[in-house]
Amino acid sequence: MKVVALVSGGKDSCYAMMRCIDYGHEIVALANLMPLDDSVDELDSYMYQTIVVGYAECMGLPLFRRRIRGSTRHQHLNYKMTSGDEVEDMFVLLNEVKKQIPSITAVSSGAIASDYQRLRVESVCSRLGLVSLAYLWKQDQTLLLEEMIERGIIAITIKVAAMGLNPAKHLGRELADLIPYLLQIKELCGINVCGEGGEYETLTLDCPLFKNARIFLDKFEVILHSPDNIAPVGFLHPLAFHLQHKMEPLSSGSCDIGSGKVGYVCEVQGDSTPDHMVQSLSACSQLGNCTTKNLNLCISRGSRDKFSIGCWIQNVSKTLDGLQEDLISVLGKIELKLNEDGFDWLNVIYIHLYISNMKDFTLANEVYVKFITEKKCFLGVPSRSTIELPLVQVGLGNAFVEVLVANDHSKRVLHVQSISCWAPSCIGPYSQATLHGEVLHMAGQLGLDPPTMTLCSGGPAIEIEQALLNSEAIANCFNSSLVSCAILLTVYCAASLTFCERTEIQHKMESFFDDDSDSIDVKRVASPIFLYILAPALPKGALVEVKPVLYIPENGDYGIGNNLLGSDSKEMVWDFQTYTISGKICAALVSITKDVAAKICPNTEPELISGDHIRVIAKFCVFLVNKVLLDNYLFWGDLMHLKFYYTAYLSMTAETLNLIFYEVFAAFAEDSKSFEMGKEPIFSLIPVLSSGRSASMEDIITCELFASKL
């Protein structure tokens, strides 16, 4: 991609540009925001601004600059377009760059740890249709600083403001000389060695990107701003500098500016331009579509803070209206249901998006973003997973959507849209993870190499290893770990995999969570539940995708108990696994294998199973679900979701299967008085190629339940 780099004059923005080049991008322009008044701050002085202009000549690139006219008006972490805010100056600046150089598609920034800075850059990029590149994000600061020096960045300190840093001793010093001392006071005082906490500021005098010239400070003075005895604050005030040319001036990159002048500087004027956000669709505008289709809802809803809504289209005749029409209808129906109950998309924590053909993935996203937008979900967009399922084969439409809804707005969302070395970005309106009620719901993770956003080569074993590393990086942002906190991991395997490849994936999963692993710092209290699902296709042509659910207690007290029943007991008919957090959470997986089905009813070969057999199996499932809940001191009202994955090779439609299960549940509800059965079922039936607790995926039906008192 062709990139415009946000530069401040410091080491971080310079090294971020170098990282962009490492990953095959081309820096074609620089952009800089400068203060309205040069005299307000020493670091914003006219001399410093003049030095930054020198970067254009040093690199042979055009520099676009704008004076900051706004102020910090929107002070929440997640930025929302606010007239008069300084972020709108960044929007005007980058919008002008894009106009003058239309080939630019990405923006580079030097954010390392600041969510505040990253989110504002991402907001502007999203509005302008640009990709945010933040290759320093979440990187180890000690390693970063050492890399900067090793790769030839020559930078000096121009401000110090931290315990252990003395203006008289440490201002004007090269970072290469200060590294040992910075590491020492990091251990003693806990400073950020890259200065992310404002401990110090730097000015880059030379780096490998400066092809034409380097900067020399000829004269400067040290100004003591705050003579504090513990953490004095001081600035380096440059009095004179010059550029020392290295060769005949060259242009470092190609751009579309007509002048073609090396070191071209453009000062961007004008007021903030109106935002051009995608117009969102609402349920009202699509109501006609919703009412003309045979839409079905299922609602797993108790008296607690979270519940699920599922929606699909009954399409027994298998008429093909297309994914766009079907998904609009399904999302519109869910939005109507949310609104009826006093909720909206802001209350949604997680979304499962099932589509009939992964070739329509891009189209599905185009429809999706018209309903679920950052504007509607200002606390953060829901996390999401998307897979292809055999929907049409069982008499359903082209889209099936499940949403997990919270009664309140207490969720904490991690949504990183920047491409970085940390974990795969979520450029669309879905987040990496959402935490609510001590349960972390993570988006489906592919085996993507984060800085390149391409699938790792080497086959499914390599992909699952990378997917787990990506999941671990996300978990770390919530001060947790997959190894210590995972409750349930759903592993989606592509249908193209052989049995041996699926078995290898299972071995990789088990090895990652092995208590004896020397590579893991944290020990597990109990083993998580693994659910394997065979799907026709996954996004980006991936071979495997993992979707973790974690328990992250507020007080650090896990209180976890693990109970595995049936697999080693000849006396028990059932085969299920539970994972419980005492008095709080219970996750369970019930497997109806051929062997289990043979003990319940005769003639259990998939092609021979009749409606009567399914009715017996459904009754058995209800019995086991009730047992799991009672054994763990939970009630039907505590259910967050109840799902039944069934093989699409059963010789019956989804409509028939749903009717049988509904009748069984309704009869149980009437007899036991455990819950009330409304017109919508409290469960969802999801067609898959196969499923199970192991990679063999031999279940006829797999039941997944999640109940919580949180």
Automatic annotation (TrEMBL):
It is an enzyme of class 6 (ligase). Keywords: ATP-binding, Ligase, Nucleotide-binding. It comes from the Eukaryota. It catalyses: diphthine-[translation elongation factor 2] + NH4(+) + ATP = diphthamide-[translation elongation factor 2] + AMP + diphosphate + H(+). GO terms for molecular function: ATP binding; diphthine-ammonia ligase activity. Residues 1-221 form the Diphthamide synthase domain. CDD domains: AANH_PF0828-like, eu_AANH_C_2. Its EC number is 6.3.1.14. Pathway: Protein modification; peptidyl-diphthamide biosynthesis. Belongs to the Diphthine--ammonia ligase family. PANTHER family: DIPHTHINE--AMMONIA LIGASE, DOMAIN OF UNKNOWN FUNCTION 71 DUF71 -CONTAINING PROTEIN. This is Diphthine--ammonia ligase.
